[in-house]
Amino acid sequence: MNEISRRQFVTGSALALTGAFAIPRSAKAADAVIDVLLNDSPGTILPDCYGHFVEHLGAVVYDGIWVGEGSKIANVGGIRKSIIDAMARIKAPIIRYPGGCFADSYNWRDGVGERSKRPRRTNFWYGVNSKEVPMDSTSRFEPNEFGTNEFLQFCKLTGAKPYLAANVRGLTANDLWEWVEYCNAPVASTTLAQLRASGSAGSREPYKVEFWGIGNESWGCGGEMTPEEYSQEFRKFTAAYPPFDVPLKFIGAGASSDDLNWTRGFFAKMREKGEGSFRRLHGWGVHHYSWNVSAGRTTDWNAGKGDALDFSNEQYYEMLRQADSLEDWLLKHWAIMGEFDRAHRTKIAVDEWGTWHKAGTELKPPHLLGQQNTMRDALVASISLDIFNRHPDKVMMGNIAQLVNCLQSLFLADGDRFITTPTYHVFDMYVPHMNGKAVRTVCDSPKLSWDRNGKPAEFWSVNGSASVNGKTLTLTVTNPHLTQRRETEVRVHGAKPVSAAGRTLAETDVKVHNTFDRPNSVVPRDHTARIVGESIAVSLAPASVTRLSITLQ
Ligand code: AHR
Q1: What is the mean pLDDT of each run of 10 residues along the chain (553 residues)?
Q2: What atom of ligand 1 comes closest to residue 101's alpha carbon?
Q3: Cis peptide bond prior to 322, omega within 30° of 0
């Protein structure tokens, strides 16, 4: 294995040594050098790292996804057609549903059977922004028009796998058993299988749902448990299931960002029953939001957050730094997991991530936690996806929060108006990484620095990830600097590059965003990349993400 320490390279002299070969510093005047080590692979990038998240929250489901069968808006069985088409384009691999905090207040039985007979319930998010939200809004009262069958139909239409999150705070292990039976039991085999076939959007055929989340944020809205208490619930909820032709993959409600105690407490308690317990824990669901907070998490969901559109240069850099800190937290959680699960059977699912800005830029008040999405959000996406790409041996899934009209959305929708955001374009640009063999990149460039409350703060100025699919090497790179371009030399070690094509998402103003009136203000464009001898030369614009598609000999 060829090893090169980043510090050795960045601070190093003219020659940084790897196991098998030497990487000389460029003699040319490039601002940045990226070495791509084709013979150093940590594994295959699982498409599920590019996953999504849909919660019954604000306008995610109604009218982001569900417009109803009688709607004038183009739809397939009540599901907005434009969202189906846009998700197919980015090869959406998996969607987590129905929450989030909503999941632990939801009874799946309310959302099955004849749609007209389904009950109305109070939504978990009833009280958020309560002065502005009308009383008859679906943000307050859940009509249950969209339930299990409609969601699974949405998955089928988009080609994504479903990932269902169980209610651990309010329901029992037996309720989950029955939800599994409802979804997966063979044709007409049980009363629940018959209900599945007979209800609205019914399906005789089993859905074969593989991924099941055991609660959500069980340290908080999911039950205020201790990690030890949650470990017991996890074991109870996953103890036994009918093997309906599909192996069930359980995801535990993991920690928020830096909460290492939650991971340690849970894993230690699981271990008391032997290392075999980890066989049932397919994924550990870490959550990581990026925000400009001046206050910690409180019961006020807007507390201390910054604005989606009106932000300072410092807030811009801080947001990117927050996103980037995920890598460090993942490594720390991973190390703790390995102390107890020594074979590392359990991988990490970052099943909620993204930016979280304060209220004020949502399309209208019932769009709870809705926000605009600028180039800054796009770079949070590129930084996060590059982290997943660099750790395919640890990360098995990622789910951006949330798909439409909420937090770092890929889409904004209101009635018949629908647009894609800059974040969507990053997902589109990253599609070639899916199923690629990740290969290591070493980036060498001067650090970027800014003033944080009178003290200097630092950040890398070029970083990214690379993968190989057949003869194509895909390299994605972010230049976070607000004003400086980076003339970059990409050196491929292990094969000769013969051609290169670039695509970039870049705007001179990082606050630029797409609106219903100007839906294409931020879109990716083709970008020049030249083969120069054994290297590729590319100019990275300020505040940009660039993809290079390099053909290898
Ligand atoms: O994504 C919004 C909320 O953030 C989710 O419901 C919850 O899990 C997290 O705190």
Answers
A1: 31 33 49 97 98 98 96 98 98 98 98 97 93 94 98 98 98 98 98 95 97 98 98 96 92 96 98 93 97 64 86 93 96 98 97 96 96 98 98 98 98 98 98 98 93 88 97 98 96 97 97 98 98 95 98 96
A2: 6
A3: no
Strand partners, 398: 350
**Which CATH number goes with the domain that contains 493?**
2.60.40.1180
Atom 8 of ligand 1 has which residue's CA nearest to it? 100
Ligand 1, atom 4, lies closest to the CA of 100
What's the pLDDT score for residue 297? 52
- Looking at 434, 459, 487, the residue that finishes a domain is 434
Residues 415 and 445 in one domain: no
Q: How confident is the model at residue 298, as a pLDDT?
A: 55
Measuring from each residue's beta carbon to the nearest atom of ligand 1, which residues come in under 6 Å? 55, 99-101, 216-217, 352, 401-402, 407
Contact 139, 64 (CB under 8 A): no
| Residue with CA at minimum distance from ligand 1 atom 9 | 100
Domain total in the chain: 2
Report d(CA 276, CA 82) in Å as an integer: 45
Residue 14 has a pLDDT of 31
Q: In which residue are the tokens 């994605």 written?
A: 476
Q: How far does the centroid of ligand 1 lie from the alpha carbon of residue 369, in Å? A: 10
Among the atoms of ligand 1, which is closest to the Cα of residue 402? 1
User: What Cα–Cα distance (Å) separates residue 237 from each residue in 31, 103, 206, 233?
Assistant: 54, 15, 21, 6
Length of the chain: 553
Q: What is the CA radius of gyration of the chain?
A: 23
Residues serving a catalytic function are 217, 352
The pLDDT assigned to 8 comes to 31
Number of the ligand 1 atom closest to the C-alpha atom of 297: 10
Instruction: Yes or no: say if 32 and 443 are a contact pair by the CB < 8 Å rule.
Output: yes
